[in-house]
Specification:
Layout (H helix, E strand, L loop, with lengths): L9 H11 L4 H10 L11 H14 L3 E5 L5 H9 L5 E6 L2 H13 L6 E5 L2 H10 L6 E6 L6 H11 E10 L15 H15 L3 E6 L5 E6 L1
Parallel strand pairs: 1-2, 1-4, 2-3, 4-5
Antiparallel strand pairs: 5-7, 6-7
Helix pairs in contact: 3-4, 6-7
């Protein structure tokens, strides 16, 4: 959930942002407002948002599933890239932070595309499966509590269509995943999901040094 890379040298990160990132004014405004919050590090960076927008366009995505909204930067970025008929189904448990997201979805002209579900994400995803939504999504982004990342991974695989893309954020965890002897539950869960994806015959996976590490998996 880091807004800037914890892996790349600051100069390299600044070079990427200055040469390659073109951020919509409403996204820049949201990023600036979020920067004043105590948990500002939970927001993805502008470079990651732009990468996600590119994926939407490459996939010609129409339906996007988001697990973990915070103040809405990733959902807003994706919604802006989706076609007018596109859908963002966003899962979160925090009304305070998502109230900021609602304001910016409206300001960005994409509120009609967003279906926000407040409640435990696993329960929401189970409801989607039960409602016949398996295979109905083109792109999924997991950026919520790390201890349950495997649960979200499994549900996302069920909800994605063939050749759909899953993204899992923070999989380098500021380098903490290098400590294989760690007792930290979140770190262990993130290392485990990296290893799982690398050996999962249901997906093709790659780990990208964007932000705090972005796991990208294509459903076969």
């Amino acid at each position: 959930m880091s807004a800037r890379s914890t892996i790349l040298a600051p100069g390299i990160q600044a070079y990427i942002e200055s040469t390659m990132v073109s951020e919509a004014p409403v996204l820049a405004k949201l990023r600036a407002e979020t920067a004043a919050l105590p948990n500002a590090q939970m927001q993805i960076g502008a470079d990651q948002g732009q990468f996600m927008q590119m994926l939407v366009r490459l996939l010609q995505a129409k339906r996007y599933l988001e697990i973990g909204v915070f103040t809405g930067y990733s959902s807003l970025a994706v919604a802006l890239a989706l076609p007018p008929s596109g859908l963002v189904l966003a899962c979160d448990i925090n009304e305070t932070y998502t109230s900021v997201a609602r304001r910016y979805w409206k300001e960005g002209g994409v509120a009609s595309k967003v279906d926000l579900r407040i409640g435990p994400a696993a329960a929401t995803m189970e409801e989607l499966v039960t409602a016949g939504q398996a295979g109905a999504f083109d792109l999924a982004f997991i950026d919520a509590d790390k201890a349950n990342v495997d649960v979200y991974y499994e549900y996302a695989l069920r909800l994605l269509r063939k050749n759909g893309i899953m993204l899992v954020d923070n999989v380098l965890w500021s380098g903490a995943v290098l400590d294989l002897a760690t007792e930290d539950e979140d770190t262990r869960a993130l290392h485990a999901i990296n290893m799982k994806a690398a050996n999962d015959e249901r997906v093709d996976a790659s780990l990208l040094p964007i932000g705090d590490g972005l796991l990208m998996a294509r459903k076969r």
